[in-house]
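Replying to the earlier thread about multi-chain prediction with a worked example.

Input:
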Amino acid sequence: MSADPTRVVVADDDPDIRELVTFKLEQAGYVIDAVEDGAAAWETIAAAPPRLAVLDVMMPGLSGLDVLRKLREEPATRDVPVILLTARSRDSDVDGGFAAGATDYVIKPFSPRELVHRVSSVLRRP
Amino acid sequence: MTARSLLTVSLVAVALVCVGLVALTVVARVTRLRRARRLERLAAPHRRLLLEVAAGEDDDGSAAAALAALPPAAWRSLRPVAVAMLGKVRGAPATAIVATLDAHGEIDRARAALGSRSALRRANAAHLLGIVRDEASGPRLVALLDDRDEDVRVVCARALGRIGEASAADALLRAAGPRAGRKRRRSAAVGDAVDHGVGPAGRPAGIPAWIAAEALLALREDAADTVARGVGAPDPGVRAVAVTVTTHAGHSEAVELVRDHLPTERDPDVLEAMVECLGRVGVEADAPLLVGLTRAGSAPGLRRHTVRALGRLGGPTALERLRELLSDPDRATAAVAAEALLDSGHAGVAVLQAERLAHPATARAVSAALHLAGLRGVAAVTRS
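Result:
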């Protein structure tokens, strides 16, 4: 588990969303590692597992779901909570996200305030 | 001039043209890049204000007020980011961004641009009015569903979906109706006999069915009545979209109409949509309706589609018919029946297991399905 209890990895290929989520979570007191694609997310998380990861689903190269599956396969990252933040809103998409091992699922357009609540709620879980 | 010198001159001319085009492309790209960087530099000092508003960190409204007071040049640099952010957040931050756009006259300008001669401007205006959910623009966006430019029509349909006003449902359904080679009559309502297909000045009209369906699904609940009327509309394109929306929205009145119209429906696309609808949101009592379409005389595509729908529907009647179809002379249909039984859950798997023991002749399709069941993690059932 990460040494920093407030470190969160944010992965989104949309720079506006990445900046917005980073800003909001930093305002809430978290330390953010922001990356722009799935491969960078996987490398960052595998190198030093954070307390939580917020992953976009549709990213070039490795998708958020691909990263999530890899995380769940590796013993060192298996327990990292993951919130998927995505525009894919169909029931089958949500089902697929949870089936792949997501801890929570937030649909865009999203409420930044609600995202912070979801993050803190996930981190409060034992 | 000899033939050889003529060829040389031509080649030199072609080479010069190529070099010129490459230079032009490079200059255009560099200019665009420099403009983007200039805008970025101009926007940078104000970006934090926008982030505060978009993140809901502007409790006292000071950031929104500062954004509203930005001089036009600074606002122009920030505008693309504001519009992009608006499409990604909801709640109070979205409301605050809309107020900022309004303070800079963006909404008024977009309303005016709906009448622009440029299709790009009309489309951009419709997009903005959609993301700010400008209900007042609803009627003009509805009128633009008949625009001569398809991109404008599509953007308007999506904008109407975002705005959500149920009054747009009729127009969206009609816009989905056009089929090639027929003429449009704009004033007709969904329930009237409508011939669609060619817009003003003979151009192809309408919007793709899936765009119409997505927009209709985004409308408020009171659009359900219009969608239900669409199930019985004379135009098969309208019927297909109305049935597709019914499948995903599950409005009970419209589902009932699908049941009523299925036995007399002749259009193959609409029939497939109706079968899909009952397979997904129907009840076990709908099975006899579907079973009729699995008889040997039905079109092969529709027949297999119905077999899959029976698997999703489940229940004794559906399972019994699927069991019979395991020995269908058409091996593809038999294989689809085996998969449909698998899709219907444990009861279907039990039918497959019993069939494997009782009728070895059907073993191939049944074994393949049971193998698939094992791969899907219902091995405990397949071993029992």
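Chain B has 21 helices and no strands.

Feel free to reuse this layout for your own posts.
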